[in-house]
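Sequence in, structure out.
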Amino acid sequence: MTAPYLHHRVITWGDTDAAQIVYTVRFFDFAMEAIEGWFRSVLGLDWYALNIDRHIGTPFVNVAMDISAPLTPRDHLCCAVHVERLGRASLTLRVLGRKEDGTESFDARHTCCFVNSQSMTAIPVPPEFRTPIEAYCGAGGGITPRAPRREAESA
């Protein structure tokens, strides 16, 4: 297993707004695309199969993102997906988006909870998913969380 999982994407004209840079909300889409690719790569199924075939949902309960550099249709984006925390029923993934020159564009954290998709009640991460997630972490896909950012002191 190769870790971290890398999701590549070309930024297109349709991703941009009137300011000629990527529309802010698209950064969240880019992170979600990378996470679903990670699910396919590491767990062997996408969200549709997880929900329809297995009756397991993974709704997001927390999302945070820092955007540090704009993107334009001239850019190629590479998103690295890391496991930040694997809980009893939850999973926090950190997605680092970088331009092809290595410039960080965004740093996102998405926490989902495994649920029975019919009753929407939390369930433990199934062993058939926990095992590959732990192997992914052991292969270099897990990270130590960053220290919280300190707000700049007011003058």
